[in-house]
Amino acid sequence: MVSCNNRHLQANTAERGAPVKELEDRIVRDGVVKAGGVLKVDAFLNHQCDVELFDHMGAEWARLFEGEQINKILTIEASGIGIACCVARHFGNAPVVFAKKAQSINLDGEQYCTKIFSFTKQREFSVIVGRRFLSPGDRVLIIDDFLANGCALEGLIAICESAGAEVAGVGIAIEKGFQGGGDKLRAQGYRVESLARIACMDDETGEITFA
Ligand code: 5GP
Question: Of all atoms in ligand 1, which is nearest to the CA of residue 41?
Answer without folding.
Answer: 22
